[in-house]
Amino acid sequence: MQRIVEAVPNFSEGRDKEKIARIIKVFASHPEVKLLSYEPDADYNRTVVTLLGEPEPLEKALTDLVGVCVREIDLNHHSGQHPRMGAVDVIPFIPIEGVTMADCIGYAKSLAKIVQDQFDVPVFLYAEAATSEARILLPDIRKGEFEGMKEKIKDPLWHPDYGRPEIHPTFGVVAIGARAPLIAYNIDLASKDEKIAGNIAKAIRKSSGGFQYIQSGPAHLEKRGHVQVTMNILDYKKNPIYRIFETVRMEAKRYHVEITGAEIVGLLPRDALVKSLEYYFNVHDEASSVKDLDFETLVEKARQYLLFRDFDKFKIIESYL
Amino acid sequence: MQRIVEAVPNFSEGRDKEKIARIIKVFASHPEVKLLSYEPDADYNRTVVTLLGEPEPLEKALTDLVGVCVREIDLNHHSGQHPRMGAVDVIPFIPIEGVTMADCIGYAKSLAKIVQDQFDVPVFLYAEAATSEARILLPDIRKGEFEGMKEKIKDPLWHPDYGRPEIHPTFGVVAIGARAPLIAYNIDLASKDEKIAGNIAKAIRKSSGGFQYIQSGPAHLEKRGHVQVTMNILDYKKNPIYRIFETVRMEAKRYHVEITGAEIVGLLPRDALVKSLEYYFNVHDEASSVKDLDFETLVEKARQYLLFRDFDKFKIIESYL
Questions:
Q1: Residues of B catalogued as catalytic
Q2: Which long-range contacts (CB under 8 A, 24 or more apart) does A155-160 make?
Q3: Is-contact A264 A311, C-beta < 8 A?
């Protein structure tokens, strides 16, 4: 079985197109690693990169990414709307196929050691790889940002997991960790009333008592002329898409509002689709095994049962393998 | 508007019927406070009491309860299956009508001061009244029980909120706090397969990623010949009954299993019923206002929409007022 890991590093440059090109070019020397996308954001002044590959080549590519950012980015001359503490700010490893979360924690630690040894950049382990409760959430580590980290890192509570308690003078620090795949998922409602979307979002999201791995809020799509319940699913194994979809449908009933569609922003793992379609195959007594379906049939069934729009096989991570 | 508070004190005697009678007798001198029930449990060797009343007479009755238990119960000669740390182990205040959670936190603090002043019993504030994260959950405070508390209370981390860091030699310590009403709620499934009930319980409960205020597990009712999803709803405002009921129904569909009934164990606040019936009144375009229904109609509608069995108005706390 293949061992496939996703990594979604963020680096702190989203404006200088030539610099971004020079940074992204490092992946050209790692053809075994797939560069699925990179999305520079000028307001945030950072770029989010999505990589897919086997653990060993992925580690080499990420090491080179840190190396080029040590040379290219000086955070003393950086501003942007998104909080940041490092030239490469964060590197999460995400298990996709044939690897466990424990494996990904191992990859995080291995890369952390290399980054510290080769570039003298202090590393915080975060999310599933965190060494204490206070380091699980990225915003907690990042609080104070590059500027505040000079002092913060001297506090014994915030000594890095790898390296001396002193930031790299131009790079800052980096958080490396492991987490479950995050699915950005929106449900379209046949209504223009944002309050209805807001009430439904409140019913399902963790912060107001709903499902543990759901972040959610209302959105109004002016061009499309309707509202959405917009969500992040932080763990699709514990909060599968179908359960969220059906709960939203149930809540919408009290407002006599129909669900007209749904969309995945970015990518989702094949397994997330399989786990949810299995529910509908059971309910509707469909005989075939969802696990064995090809991409085309999975896409067709996702459209039928989960009302996915603008959806094709290139939304499924494994289609790139 | 009336101000009505529920209190559910537990005292550590569940076997000696004469002693229990002497303890319960204190409520006879407080006719303004309604003694809804007391349930001695011989295995647990404790008794759970449910009281309802206005805050001031309730405080007097609870003070007398602590007083009689100081005289009657010596924890040095107590054993039972349920963990305990005090002759009166815990006293939660629960807002029912015309009072807020903040009010109930106030009542908890007021009673805590009286208990400490009059009986020299150390008090821990817990749940919504807790003074630190570590003291929110009763099992965390109670860990070590009466026997271990002698040493534990000397640790500055576990100094009591009221009183010296020394247990009462025969009474021990008591936790006093405030919490939302807890609803014990079970859903009947037309199946004998406990695994199905277990899977559904897992989908909805907090501990495996479900709703924040749901504790849940499977149960097999031998005499009735079917399984149940058995639950505690810790906050019915954030996790209303209808939402749990409909989510269980949705999950059960994949097993082609029907819900045949549901039951409330103990009592529930009228507002919990109103909040859930409003969902069905909206869905089915029933014109009347649920809030204004009398007890009989509420009961009838709860049977119709929520499939409540063995349900009458005496299951509704406010019917005792």
A1: 82
A2: A160/A122, A160/A123, A160/A124
A3: yes
For residue A204, the chain B residue with the least C-alpha distance is B211
Alpha-carbon distance of B215 to A221, in angstroms, equals 37
Chain A positions in Cβ-Cβ contact with residue B254 (cut-off 8 Å): 279, 282-283
- Residue B157 has a pLDDT of 94
Tokens 């971004």 -> residue: A20
B275 touches chain A (CB under 8 A): no
pLDDT for A278: 98
Considering the domain architecture, whether residues A162 and A15 belong to the same structural domain is answered as: yes
Q: What is the ipTM of this complex?
A: 0.82
Alpha carbon of A203: minimum distance to chain B alpha carbons (Å): 8
Question: Is A226 a residue of the active site?
Answer: no
A276 touches chain B (CB under 8 A): no
Q: Tens digit of pLDDT for each residue in A111-129?
A: 999 999 999 999 999 999 9
A193 and A309 housed in the same domain = yes
Looking at the 3D structure of chain A, how many domains does it have? 2
Q: What's residue A159's pLDDT?
A: 97
Contact A212/B213, CB-based, under 8 Å? no
**Residue B195 three-state SS:** helix
Amino acid B246: pLDDT:
98
Closest Cα in chain A to B282: A254
Shared-domain flag, residues A146 and A53: yes
User: Do B97 and B155 belong to one domain?
Assistant: yes
Q: Which residues of chain A lie closer than 8 angstroms to B279, CB-CB?
A: 254
CATH of residue B196's domain is: 3.30.70.670
pLDDT at B82: 85
Mean pLDDT across chain B: 96
Average pLDDT over residues B39-61: 93
Mutate to test the interface with A, among B196, B243, B278 (most CBs of A within 10 A): B243
Identity of the residue in B211, B254, B282 whose CB atom sits nearest the CB atom of A209 = B211
Find chain A residues with C-beta within 8 A of B205's C-beta: none
pLDDT computed for residue A82 by the predictor: 85
Q: Are B233 and B244 in contact (CB under 8 A)?
A: yes
Instruction: Give chain B's end-to-end CA distance (angstroms, integer).
Output: 13
Task: Output the pLDDT for position A197.
Answer: 97
CB contact under 8 A, B212 and A209: yes
* Of A81 and A155, the one with more pLDDT: A155
Residues A192 and A94 in one domain: no
Residue A1 has pLDDT above 80, yes or no: no
Q: What are A223-242's pLDDT values in tens digits?
A: 899 999 999 999 999 999 99
- Whether A29 and chain B come into contact, CB under 8 Å, resolves to no
Task: Round to whole Å and give the CA distance between B128 and A83.
Answer: 34
Q: How far apart are CA A203 and CA B246, in angstroms?
A: 13
| pLDDT of res. B130 | 97
DSSP summary character for residue B259: E
**Does residue A165 sit in the same domain as residue A208?**
no
Cα–Cα distance for residue pair A79/A88, rounded to 1 Å:
14
